[in-house]
Amino acid sequence: MKIQINQLGYTADMKKVALLRDELAEELQVFNQAGALVMTLPVDVKRTEIWGDLVAEVDFSALQEPGMYTLRCGAESSWPFPVGERPYQACLTALVDMFYYQRCGDDLDERAGVFAHPACHTGLARVYGTEEWREVNGGWHDAGDFGRYIVPAAKAAADLLLAWQWNPAAFEKPGLTPVLEETRYELEWMLKMQREDGGVYHKVSCARFCGMIMPHEEQEELIISPVSTTATGDFAACMAMASRYYAKIDTTFADRMLAAAKRAWDFLAVTEPILFRNPEGISTGGYGDRDDADERLWAHVELALTCGEEKYLTAAREAILRSDRCHAPLGWGDMRGYAAVEGLGLPGELGEICRRWVLEAADDLLTRINVYGITMTERLPWGSNMNISNDGMLFHQAWLLTGAEKYREAAWKQLHYLLGVNPVDTCYVSGFGTRPMARPHHRPSVALGVCQPGMLSGGACSGLADACAREHLQGQPAGKCFIDMHESYSTNEICVYWNSPMVALLAGLTK
Ligand code: 9MR
Ligand code: ZN
């Protein structure tokens, strides 16, 4: 199809814009389910050349009557889509349920349907290079692989907490587990990854990625990789942040997290950067980093917020004043966005600086938006759908601060892109939309021959970073470097920290 719409549809009063590729007709027709023509609309005469297509926008916001519709223009048409109430609620629930499916060390019961399996990865894990064995059961499998890594775990947990903060009502009808309970499953595991001196191990995984098997079938030795200061900084920040959320639900748990955060912070205070690289013999996810300043910054901010103690405030002040400009990315590698968004709650000048950071970052992103509404055109990185969701979160935060419609509209565009307004005519969430991604690089889905629902694909990756992508996508423009085949791990894997910002974005937008 060459008319791109949000495949999940729209509410009656939403702004609705379809993109039309390579069709020069100047009229768009709207048909209802019975095939009757209900509306004719002009197509914007302006065409934008992007990713090998000539693209036009068509605003069909005038369509407000609930029902199922199809758009047609010249020889092209759209998938049928609904206009109705709460079109994204089921998708949001499924995106949260995904975390239950990703659980490690738990018997996934019948609620997981065909994806049920006995507890996996429950043996003791060996601390790399030693004869020490530790119990680190629990947490979520990171992605299509079964590694458990602290750095992305902290991002995923932080996003889910923000999602809940932004719109608790969005989670009132929980699917498999309430969102804070599910997040706790990860936090409990993270606590086990802290060493007695406060340092936090970077990850636990087998030495290498296994074949396309079920989690409990991976029986190789589990290895705990060395402590890094990026993992320790993220851990300190995430634990201090989470302790505020759980303080009213379970004080003992909240206290345990805060104490752990403080121990991690103390460790950082006397430790030079330890940047992670896979040690000899280990080839699972690296989550390496160029520096740990942003992880430390985020940790200072969260401890200052949670404790209000002078030493944390001083550290936060010094770190904030040291970074004069901040692009505020909400990545797994650059945590300044979390420092900025959370730092909005700091007193006086510090809160003001964070506000400036958020708005400058959002304004900068606005200047890069293309006709698809996303901020990347020439180059889309591995997991670009995470960046798109992250941008959406930042726009949403800017809207919360200012009420300016331009931010809200930009946030919606990120969502529309993910759900179908993209040049590969795909709903990037499995199990949703008319043409969903369906063959993810996700071991249980491949092993069972059934696609697990509610997973956000990594999406277009212009670097063609795997053999399958190189075979099928050579010469494709950046936005079209996506292939729905499980072999393409650089374009079609799934990850907990790709789902999590989309959860936050959807929660924020549907408030
Ligand atoms: O999301 C990560 C991406 O930003 C990197 O470019 C890529 C290559 O280093 O790794 C991605 O993370 C993968 C991790 O290393 C292992 N689990 C699956 C992750 C998603 O592909
Ligand atoms: Zn497992």
Features:
15 helices, 40% helix, binds zinc ion, binds ligand 9MR, alpha+beta, 511 residues, five-stranded mixed sheet, 16 strands, Immunoglobulin-like, globular, single chain
Describe this structure in words.
This protein has 511 residues and is an alpha+beta fold. Among the domains are: 1-87, Sandwich (Immunoglobulin-like), CATH 2.60.40; 371-511, no CATH class. Helix content is 40%, strand content 11%. The strands form 4 sheets. Strands 3, 4, 7, 8 and 9 form a 5-stranded antiparallel β-sheet that branches. Bound molecules: ligand 9MR and zinc ion. Residues 104-105, 120-121, 141, 146, 215 line the site of zinc ion (ZN). Zinc ion binds next to loops.
